[in-house]
C-alpha cells in the first residue's frame, strides 16, 4: 500500500496510464483483426486498405510505449507479406 504522498501520486498515475494503455492496445488489436478478417475473406483490395490503416496505429503503439519496436516490425512484416501473397 502506498504510504508517502509521492507513492500515492504514482499509484494514481499508474492507474490512469493502465487505462490509457489498455485502450490503445485494444484499438491496435481491432485494426489487426480487420486485416486478418480481410485476409480470411480473400479480398486483396480490402486487405491492403486495412493494412494501410493498421500500420500507423501499430507505429503509434511503439512511440507511446505500449508495444515493443521489434514486435511491431515483425507483425507489420508478416501481415504485409500475407497481403502481398494474396494479391498475386
Describe the structure.
It is built from three helices and no strands. It is mainly alpha-helical. Helix 1 (5-41) runs antiparallel to helix 2 and helix 2 (44-63) packs antiparallel against helix 3 (69-87).
Structural key phrases:
single chain, 88 residues, mainly alpha, 0% strand
User: What is the subunit organization of this protein?
Assistant: single chain
Mean pLDDT across residues: 96
Provide the low-confidence segments as ranges.
Answer: none
- Provide the succession of SSEs: HHH
Largest sheet: none
Helix percentage: over 70%
How many strand segments? Answer: 0
Give the overall form: elongated
Alpha-beta content class: mainly alpha
Radius of gyration: 17 Å
Q: Count of helical segments?
A: 3
The fraction of residues in strands falls at under 5%
Distance between the termini: 58 Å
Which secondary structure elements does this structure contain, and how are they paired or packed?
Elements: H1 5-41, H2 44-63, H3 69-87
Give a concise summary.
The chain is mainly alpha-helical and 88 residues long.
Amino acid at each position: 500500500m502506498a504510504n508517502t504522498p509521492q507513492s500515492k501520486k504514482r499509484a494514481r498515475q499508474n492507474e490512469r496510464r493502465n487505462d490509457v494503455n489498455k485502450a490503445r492496445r485494444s484499438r491496435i488489436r481491432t485494426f489487426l483483426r480487420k486485416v486478418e478478417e480481410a485476409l480470411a475473406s480473400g479480398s486483396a483490395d480490402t486487405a491492403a486498405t486495412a493494412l494501410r490503416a493498421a500500420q500507423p496505429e501499430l507505429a503509434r503503439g511503439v512511440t507511446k510505449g505500449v508495444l515493443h519496436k521489434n514486435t511491431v516490425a515483425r507483425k507489420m512484416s508478416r501481415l504485409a507479406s500475407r497481403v502481398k501473397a494474396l494479391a498475386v
